[in-house]
Specification:
about 170 residues; single chain; four-stranded parallel sheet; alpha/beta
Length: about 170
């Protein structure tokens, strides 16, 4: 399962489309249907631990990080999240919102930047499938900026993995 910071979403239609596409590929990957929930309260009461959490705010990190599996991934916006809890999970820090603003020129695409990072790091859906979902679901005229944001996220993921490898090699 993947948890996404509810405050970080900007486009419900795109989220629904990507969610549907991700759900389909994730179900094929794990070989069984994923759980569906009608409300956040129902999800919180019935879910198992998270494989991945995107926290674009300190509040989201504080609230949901305890739900991560020991083998989970916590991706935080390093500008917004200053207190990252200790745990056995993998922690990745990236300036998601700032990069969207500075490189793409639009903060609103931060969710797509994060999607690129998650796609590359998690490896549970093909990059081409995500590109296709973006192209079919973003508002007409925004395809190019959203694809640029996705590619930026992929590049940021590569940098994060290289930095991790460098730290591991130094130990």
């Amino acid at each position: 399962r993947t948890g996404v910071d509810p405050a970080g979403g900007n486009d419900h239609d795109l989220g629904d489309a990507l969610g549907s596409r991700l759900r389909h590929e994730a179900e094929a990957f794990v070989g069984q249907p994923l759980q569906r929930f009608d409300t956040l309260a129902e999800m919180e009461s019935r879910t198992e631990r998270l494989d991945l959490l995107l926290a674009l705010t300190q509040e989201a990190c504080d609230r949901y990080a305890a739900d991560l599996k020991p083998t989970g991934i916590l991706l935080v916006d390093s500008d917004a999240v200053k207190r990252v809890p200790d745990g056995p999970f993998r922690v990745l820090r990236a300036q998601v919102i700032q990069c969207a603003r500075d490189v793409i020129g639009r903060e609103i695409v931060a969710n797509i930047v994060a999607l690129g990072i998650i796609t590359r790091i998690a490896g549970v859906i093909t990059e081409d499938s995500v590109r296709e979902a973006i192209l079919t679901r973003v508002p007409k005229g925004t395809e190019e900026i959203n694809l640029k944001a996705f590619e930026l996220g992929l590049s940021l993921a590569d940098r994060l993995v290289a930095e991790e490898a460098g730290r591991a090699g130094a130990n």
